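Name: Osmotically inducible protein OsmC
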Amino acid sequence: MAESIRFTSTKGFELAGVLDSPVGGLRGWGLFVHGFTLGKDSPAASRISRSLAAEGIGMLRHDALGIGDSDGDLGDGSFTTKVADTVLAAQFMTDRGTPPDLIVGHSWGGAAAILAAQQVPSVRAVVTIGAPSEPADVERHYDAIVGEVLEEGSGTWSIGGREMTLKREFVEDVRRADLIGHVRTLDRPLLVIHSPTDATVAIDNAAHIFQAALHPRSFVSLEGSDHFLTVDGQAERAAKIISAWADQYL
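Structure predicted for Osmotically inducible protein OsmC:
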């Protein structure tokens, strides 16, 4: 059963989410962090969350600032905001009596998940799927206007048919983000999932993350999948891998 929820961002805007309740016996609770502009209803977020719920792991997935059903504008946030709002999502779950044991992040959300996990005491395990080793890798999506943004303070760009405002603070914040430094100090078990045929975020990124991580750490190659997990059955396959790996930490 899916339940629509809302909570307040660190920027004061309301964020929209979906809570996929566990089916059958409860094994634990988790939080899913979506990619850069993908949203809670993207194939990776929705299919993996529903599949984990079917495995007894209830999942919360939410739209980031300015994405999907959430209020605000993407440009009003930053990588730091995404991390902070992920922590608030975990706090929302804790306040309702279902603190997250697991945090799963896809793509850019995988980077945010690692940083957020260190600020959520209840999280016992972390999973990244197709995550970049450098959050600033996202700049290639808006590189055509970076010069204008840094000089003028803001600029407009189009992605997925939507016009968005990009601000200097966003660009500078992303460039400052140090994921590998946080991976080295992550005091949680880490599972790195990546497809060797990922044409969006190369599998070398997974190697960098995995090599920086301390044990317990695990790596699974999701052969045959694209970055967005749109190939039939791949998101569900990823969920089964996550479910089996996380069992000892739930």
